[in-house]
Design brief:
Layout lengths: L2 E3 L8 H10 L4 E8 L7 H7 L15 E6 L3 H13 L5 E5 L4 H4 L11 H14 L6 E8 L6 H10 L5 E7 L10 H10 L4 E4 L5 H11 L3 E4 L1 H5 L3 H7 L5 H15 L5 H15 L4 H10 L5 H10 L5
Helix pairs in contact: 1-11, 3-5, 5-6, 7-8, 11-14, 12-13
């Protein structure tokens, strides 16, 4: 079973990828998307979204980082994929799943699932442009407004030469509202000849087992569930227990890592964002978030993290 850390815009940035791969045995992770819109981007843009390119395209734990591109213009996507590979990207992932309105308005992400011919053209152009030893993969949703073209898009991806396909089991219209329709991922898996990776609404080991059973997929991509429980990948791989005493040191190290990488308010917002996911599983995280709620001073946040004792 392969386990992959999902690309998550505005959530799984460089530092969160470091933290999660430090404690979890992922096969690879995928960067936040680099948006391509008509221009060959300078190297600094790729480094901004995927700083690991300067580190051998691996996290400090040694987990490979694949670079994700988002756009709708085949030639421009191909040109930027070549640049990404020249900067060290070991694989290129193409985003046809982002549900954000700001992205969709500019013909990016999940809205392109209404146009299987564009999905094919972009994938084929990138596949043809980059060296044959560099995998090109696709991440998509079941569809835009509905899943009526799911199989058409999947076939387009295969015909264009993608090495594997990751499917989030919801349409753009469904957003992140439960449930994820893992069985519909299974319908895609049945008609394509490349590996299919199931994604969406995998928060626990039980969810993972059901996702694999209903989709028939061997491999899983973990997204928000991995943020809510950083040890989820270890639970799935090794049957390990996940407890709060293992989670708090991850937060403490994260706070050390991000020191000086943004304004006080930005950094405080980052750790509060993470705690808002953690409290889904851990009541201790809710208590800690309450203590930090109005705080932005880095030294005070560090002290609260160091001294935190949950109320039982």
């Amino acid at each position: 079973m392969k386990l992959i850390l999902a690309p998550m815009e505005g959530l799984a940035d460089f530092w969160v990828r470091q933290a999660l791969t430090d404690v979890g045995d992922y096969d690879w992770c995928v960067s936040e998307f680099v948006r391509v819109s008509g221009l060959l981007l300078p190297p600094k843009v790729f480094y901004r979204w995927c700083p690991e390119l300067k580190l051998g395209a691996r996290t400090r734990a040694g987990t490979p980082v694949h670079l994700q591109l988002l756009g709708s213009e085949p030639d421009c996507m191909a040109e930027n994929a070549v640049r990404a590979v020249s900067l060290g990207a070991p694989a290129i992932d193409l985003n046809f799943g982002c549900p954000a309105k700001t992205v969709n308005r500019h013909r990016g992400g999940a809205v392109l699932l209404d146009e299987p011919e564009v999905v094919h053209a972009v994938t084929a152009a990138v596949r043809e442009a980059v060296p044959t030893n560099v995998p090109v993969s696709v991440k998509m949703r079941l569809g835009n407004e509905d899943d009526g073209r799911a199989l058409d898009n999947a076939r387009a991806v295969v015909e264009a030469g993608a090495a594997w396909l990751t499917v989030h089991g919801r349409t753009k219209r469904q957003g992140y509202k439960p449930p994820a329709f893992w069985d519909r991922i299974g319908r895609i898996r049945e008609v394509v000849s490349i590996p299919v990776i199931a994604n969406g609404e995998i928060w626990t080991a039980d969810d993972a087992a059901r996702a694999r059973l209903e989709s028939g997929c061997e491999d899983l991509m973990l997204g928000r569930g991995a943020v809510a429980d950083p040890r989820l990948v270890s639970v799935l791989r090794h049957g390990a227990e996940s407890d709060w005493n293992a989670i708090l040191p991850i937060l403490q190290q994260f706070w050390v890592d991000v020191a000086g990488t943004g304004t006080d308010a930005q950094l405080a917002g980052r750790i509060k964002q993470w705690l808002s996911y953690l409290r889904r599983r851990w009541p201790q995280a809710a208590q800690l978030l309450e203590q930090l709620k109005r705080e932005t001073r880095p030294e005070v946040i560090a002290r609260i993290l160091a001294d935190f004792v949950p109320v039982t």
